[in-house]
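This part of the workshop introduces the protein records we will be handling. A learned vocabulary of local backbone shapes supplies the integers on the structure line. Getting from the letters to the tokens is the skill we practise here. As an example, a complete record with its sequence and its structure tokens follows.
=====
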Amino acid sequence: MRVFNKLKVKAEVLTILRIQELSIQNPLSLSESFIDIDGNNETQVNLLGEVTYSASKNFELTGTAAIPHLKRDYNLDGLRRSITLSAGAAYMF
């Protein structure tokens, strides 16, 4: 079987919306208190590309890359990164 027959490529737009304001634990407080961060509920839009290779009938390898398309001012939740990469394997039985 040819390699191209075993490849699947797809692109998606991934939108991340906050449903509430983010708060962080106050490091200066002796009790458990939190600080609300104003303006941190920014929307993020990522362009995501995925390539899947079917090695056999039951086994697939997947690679994914996502690139953000909106500039965010805050990075408290890690969503301000410049690129996200992931890899995975799946066995179907």
About this structure: The chain has one domain: 4-91. The chain has a mean pLDDT of 83. The CA atoms of residues 61 and 89 lie 5 Å apart. The beta strands are 7-16, 23-25, 34-36, 44-54, 59-68, 84-91.
